[in-house]
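Why should sequence recovery work at all? Because a backbone constrains its sequence more than one might expect. Tight turns favour small or flexible residues, buried strands favour hydrophobic ones, and helices have their own preferences. The token representation captures these environments compactly. In the example below, the structure is given first.
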């Protein structure tokens, strides 16, 4: 069974629904949430005799339906597998078998108040086994006789046939571990746990920091992680990366092409074998490009092909990050969290030189920003004016965007060092981020 978020268990009395659901909830606390049987819970809470006080029971159930519907929605929205004991269709079948015409007539409107589950699972035993187990459990107020159970099963099958909902059956006369094993194969609660971790991953992560601060290494680390670990440890779904530097680099190369045609360069100048930006309008232009490239990702439904969009850029100057953030689209900011990778200017310059010297084979990934460009553009950094604490939120055009600053010194390439460093900061950030 694929894409299960809400499953209802049904079966004869004393078949073991409560006990089995309790075990699943206990052994899969990060993936499963259980809702008890609404009718039994309502009758117990209001001290209602389910056989003699049918009208009172109907009214109490009706009052409880909005709360039950909201409980299901909250569990599913939080990313858990919702397992519910019994359903109102079972009570309809009992009402039919007991001659409770008032509930049968009211049922079509009541049914509309509840969400439709993804699947039904029937724990199946012979009626004789149900009668034996009812006697053993010692709750006579809920016991149902054999003839009524026969009629109830017939009506319940009719209920499913009318709705084209064929329940999956599990033989509940097996040993307890065999029943649980069958249910694990059907439900795959571990998959629900993974889905829960995936559902709570960041939508958009703005990855900021000086050049050579370690942003690319951070992305490389995440891409090398197994998907389950990346979601559960770092709150990152399968990722798409939008980096403004490749856009800038292409414009540098366009300038080279114009220059080869004896035309003036438009955006840059050559500098010590590299490039320097000559038009300050380039920085808002690049933010406009980021808005354009993120828009298709943001337009996708939240739960469809879950992904984390990482938007990477560097800015400098007295208002560099403040100006850049204000130009990002509201749609992006409303779903974003910010991770700032912090290194000093001198450390940024040292790594910038090392990156270039390590492999001066050329290409965008081994680029180096010239020293005068570094000093002019990145010597001043307004990040800590915007974000004076390690973790918090920034008000950007009325939108509160959570952030965390991660110190990335001393430099390390050891995953055993980087993993805990990344996880600590992302955990802090995730605690204050609100999913869409």
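From this structural description, the recovered sequence reads:
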């Amino acid at each position: 069974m694929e894409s299960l978020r809400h499953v209802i268990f049904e079966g004869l009395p004393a078949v073991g629904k409560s006990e089995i659901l309790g075990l699943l909830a206990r052994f899969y606390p990060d993936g499963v949430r259980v809702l008890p049987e609404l009718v039994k819970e309502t009758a117990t809470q209001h001290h209602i005799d389910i056989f003699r006080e049918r009208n009172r029971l109907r009214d109490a159930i009706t009052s409880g339906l909005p709360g039950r519907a909201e409980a299901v929605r909250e569990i599913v929205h939080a990313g858990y597998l919702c397992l519910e004991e019994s359903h109102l269709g079972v009570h309809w079948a009992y009402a039919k078998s007991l001659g409770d015409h008032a509930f049968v007539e009211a049922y079509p409107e009541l049914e509309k108040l509840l969400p439709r589950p993804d699947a039904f699972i029937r724990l199946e035993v012979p009626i004789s086994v149900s009668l034996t187990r009812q006697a053993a459990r010692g709750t006579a107020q809920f016991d149902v006789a054999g003839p009524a159970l026969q009629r109830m099963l017939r009506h319940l099958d009719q209920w499913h046939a009318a709705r084209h909902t064929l329940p999956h059956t599990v033989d509940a006369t097996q040993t307890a571990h065999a029943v649980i094993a069958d249910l694990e194969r059907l439900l795959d609660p571990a998959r629900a746990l993974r889905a829960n971790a995936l559902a709570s991953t960041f939508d958009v992560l703005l990855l900021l920091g000086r050049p050579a601060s370690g942003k690319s290494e951070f992305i490389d680390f995440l891409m090398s992680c197994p998907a389950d670990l990346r979601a559960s440890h770092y709150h990152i779904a399968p990722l798409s990366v939008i980096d403004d530097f490749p856009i800038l680099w292409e414009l540098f190369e366009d300038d080279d092409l114009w220059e080869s045609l004896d035309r003036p360069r438009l955006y840059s100048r050559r500098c010590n074998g590299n490039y320097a930006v000559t038009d300050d309008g380039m920085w808002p232009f690049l933010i406009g490009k980021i808005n354009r490239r993120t828009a298709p990702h943001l337009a996708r439904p939240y739960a469809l092909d879950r992904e984390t969009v990482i938007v990477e850029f560097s800015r400098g100057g007295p208002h560099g990050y403040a100006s850049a953030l204000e130009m990002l689209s509201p749609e992006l900011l409303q779903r974003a969290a910010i991770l700032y990778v912090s290194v000093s200017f001198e450390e940024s310059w040292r790594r910038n030189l090392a990156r270039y010297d390590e492999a001066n084979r050329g290409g965008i990934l081994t680029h180096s920003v010239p020293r005068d460009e570094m000093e002019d553009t990145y010597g001043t950094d307004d990040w800590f004016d915007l974000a004076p604490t390690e973790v918090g939120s920034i008000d950007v055009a009325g939108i509160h965007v959570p952030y965390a600053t991660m110190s990335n010194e001393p430099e390390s390439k050891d995953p055993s060092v980087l993993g805990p460093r990344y996880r600590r900061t992302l955990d802090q950030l995730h605690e204050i981020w609100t999913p869409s």
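A few observations help interpret the result. Residues 184 and 364 are 49 Å apart (CA to CA).
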